[in-house]
């Protein structure tokens, strides 16, 4: 949850490219939150029990690793040219 909070509150400037986008900041932040929740559920299902069929989500996003590092950072950074998610 702290990683999602940091992604939304610290990296908000990546969402606004011009002055007029700042007027739409709240919808953009809500969209970023929805994407973060999707990434979290898909990445956490990669570590779930393979014998439990209800624990897997359909993979819609591509990311290099589901989690990385000692704090198990999730891949919330999106690279539009590659079409993949990675850790910061």
Task: Summarize the topology.
Blueprint (H helix, E strand, L loop, with lengths): L1 H8 L15 H21 L31 E3 L4 E3 L2
Antiparallel strand pairs: 1-2
Protein name: THO complex subunit 5
The total tally of domains equals 1
Question: If helices are DSSP runs of H or I spanning 4 or more residues, what is the number of helices?
Answer: 2
Distance between the termini: 15 Å
Q: Count the beta strands.
A: 2
Q: How many strands, which pairing sense, and closed or not: the largest β-sheet?
A: 2 strands, antiparallel
- Strand content is 5-15%
Q: What is the structural class?
A: mainly alpha
Rg calc: 14 Å
- Mean pLDDT across residues: 78
List SSEs in N-to-C order: HHEE
Catalogue the unreliable spans. none
Q: Bin the helical content.
A: 25-40%
Overall morphology: elongated
Order of strands across the widest beta sheet?
1-2
State the gist of this model:
By secondary structure, this protein is mainly α. The chain contains two helices and two strands, in the order H-H-E-E.
Give an overview in words.
This protein is mostly helical and 88 residues long. The protein has one domain. It has helices spanning 2-9, 25-45, and strands at residues 77-79, 84-86. The chain has a two-stranded antiparallel ribbon with strand order 1-2. Strand 1 (77-79) and strand 2 (84-86) form a beta hairpin. The radius of gyration is 14 Å and the shape is elongated. The mean pLDDT is 78.
């Amino acid at each position: 949850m702290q990683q999602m909070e940091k992604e939304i509150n610290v990296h908000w400037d990546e969402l606004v490219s011009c002055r007029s986008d700042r007027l739409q900041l709240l919808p953009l932040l809500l969209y970023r939150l929805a994407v973060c929740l999707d990434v979290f559920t898909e990445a956490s299902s990669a570590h779930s029990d393979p014998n439990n069929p209800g624990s897997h989500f359909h993979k819609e996003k591509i990311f290099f690793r589901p989690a990385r590092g000692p704090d198990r950072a999730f891949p919330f950074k999106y690279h539009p040219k590659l079409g993949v998610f990675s850790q910061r």
